[in-house]
């Protein structure tokens, strides 16, 4: 049986020093130590649904081609021809037929990355096509999401994500379909966005609509250390909408107790997962600069509910778009503050225990001293 507790601290704990949010050197190190080594969420399986369908993704400054082959296997190939390094693909998404063709000298690669043809290379001394496949990164699919790791020898996904495998099965996330998407550009460091997501200390001051439907002190957590953090908050009404009401039924396999809860989990480093009774919402973070983050927010619904003639996701989207913008505003205020020479690390409140735990995981992966 899962045990939920309040997030708390058993010692004085303080926020990170300012340079972690403002330094270009720290940001570059994060790209190498975190985003080039961890399992990074890059989107949904449904975005690459069939053989030959692809989209370009970016991780740690690298462009990769996410493509599905004829056996249904996903690959993430570096967008680099093995001949003279030309970029293979420039369109953000599309459909390959049988091969990925280099626009420079027409080297052709099969969908699995093996080299199919190389013009006039048969006379090159020692050349063998099998020696020149595309360089690929590791790929994993989990509950409808796609993760990619650039590490040469990544921790196997099933091992790295063991605490989450099967945890959310009653939401059937792999069968949910996207009903809406909003892309935000936030003038704040990505870690400030994760921190803001992980506490409701600010909620009664910033989110009047949220506290009207979900008591801000009701949070209980079951994942309280490591790369995955979070738990649930109580839901007073039927749904996280502006009036607490919706015509959508609960997701079909949810337990009765989950009809009155919303679960929030931060999945290190870049996925924020919110599981509601009638939909799932995800924020995917793409750090751009120390003070700039792209946040892709998506809402997923039961496909049978979406097929109804009166399906309308706007009540959920309007609620969270308003809440998101409230959050982005205070994250940007935080960015401005931590950029000041007057900023010093401040004390975390008892209700901010998950933030300190996130800091510990962040410092561990960065290879720095953990308090």
Describe the structure.
The model has no long low-confidence stretch (mean pLDDT 97). With 371 residues, the protein is α+β, with helices and mostly antiparallel strands. Helix 4 crosses helix 8 (314-338). It has helices at 19-22, 24-35, 157-160, 190-197, 203-206, 208-213, 303-306, 314-338, 353-366; strands at 40-44, 53-59, 62-68, 74-78, 93-95, 99-101, 108-110, 115-117, 136-142, 145-149, 177-186, 220-223, 228-234, 261-267, 271-275, 280-289, 292-301. It contains 9 helices and 17 strands. The protein is 22% helix and 27% strand.
Which helices and strands occur, and which strands form pairs?
Layout: H1 19-22, H2 24-35, E1 40-44, E2 53-59, E3 62-68, E4 74-78, E5 93-95, E6 99-101, E7 108-110, E8 115-117, E9 136-142, E10 145-149, H3 157-160, E11 177-186, H4 190-197, H5 203-206, H6 208-213, E12 220-223, E13 228-234, E14 261-267, E15 271-275, E16 280-289, E17 292-301, H7 303-306, H8 314-338, H9 353-366
Antiparallel strand pairs: 1-10, 2-3, 2-5, 3-4, 4-9, 6-7, 7-8, 9-10, 11-17, 12-13, 13-14, 14-15, 15-16, 16-17
Helix pairs in contact: 4-8
Summarize the structure.
This protein is α+β, with helices and mostly antiparallel strands and 371 residues long.
Query: What Rg is obtained from the alpha carbons, in whole angstroms?
Result: 22 Å
What about the largest sheet?
Answer: 7 strands, antiparallel
The N- and C-terminal alpha carbons lie at a distance of 31 Å
Mean pLDDT: 97
Strand content: 25-35%
Continuous helix count: 9
Number of strands: 17
Global morphology: globular
| Low-pLDDT ranges | none
Based on helices, strands and strand pairing, what is the structural class? Answer: alpha+beta
- Proportion of helical residues: 10-25%
Give, in order, the helices and strands.
HHEEEEEEEEEEHEHHHEEEEEEHHH
Cross-sheet strand order for the largest sheet: 1-10-9-4-3-2-5
């Amino acid at each position: 049986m899962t045990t939920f507790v309040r997030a708390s601290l058993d010692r004085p704990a303080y926020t990170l020093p300012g340079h972690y949010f403002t330094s270009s050197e720290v940001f570059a190190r994060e790209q190498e130590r975190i985003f080039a080594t961890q399992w990074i969420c890059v989107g949904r399986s449904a975005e690459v649904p069939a053989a030959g369908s692809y989209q370009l993704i970016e991780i740690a400054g690298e462009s990769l081609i996410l493509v599905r082959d004829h056996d249904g296997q996903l690959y993430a190939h570096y967008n680099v021809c093995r001949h003279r390094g030309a970029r293979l693909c420039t369109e953000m998404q599309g459909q390959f037929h049988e091969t990925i063709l280099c626009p420079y000298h027409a080297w052709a690669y099969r969908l699995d990355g093996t080299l199919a043809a190389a013009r006039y290379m048969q006379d090159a001394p020692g050349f063998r096509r099998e020696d020149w496949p595309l360089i690929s990164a590791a790929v994993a699919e989990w509950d409808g999401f796609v993760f990619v790791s650039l590490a040469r020898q990544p921790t196997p996904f099933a091992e790295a994500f063991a605490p989450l495998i099967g945890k959310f099965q009653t939401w059937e996330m792999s069968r949910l379909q996207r009903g809406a998407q909003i892309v935000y550009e936030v003038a704040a460091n990505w870690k400030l966005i994760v921190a803001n997501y992980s506490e409701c200390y600010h909620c009664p001051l910033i989110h009047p609509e949220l506290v009207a439907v979900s008591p801000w002190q009701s949070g209980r957590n079951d994942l309280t250390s490591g790369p995955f953090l979070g738990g649930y908050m109580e839901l007073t009404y039927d749904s996280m909408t502006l009036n607490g009401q919706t015509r959508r039924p609960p997701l079909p396999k949810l337990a009765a107790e989950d009809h009155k809860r919303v679960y929030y989990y931060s999945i290190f480093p870049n996925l924020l997962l919110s599981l509601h009774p009638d939909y799932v919402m995800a924020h995917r973070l793409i750090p751009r600069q120390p003070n700039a983050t792209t946040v892709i927010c998506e809402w997923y619904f039961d496909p049978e509910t979406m097929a109804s003639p009166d399906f309308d996701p706007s009540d959920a989207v309007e609620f969270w778009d308003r809440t998101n913008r409230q959050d982005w505003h205070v994250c940007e205020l935080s960015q401005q503050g931590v950029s000041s020479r007057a900023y010093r690390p401040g004390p975390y409140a008892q209700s901010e225990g998950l933030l300190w735990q996130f800091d510990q995981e962040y410092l561990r992966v960065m290879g720095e001293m953990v308090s």
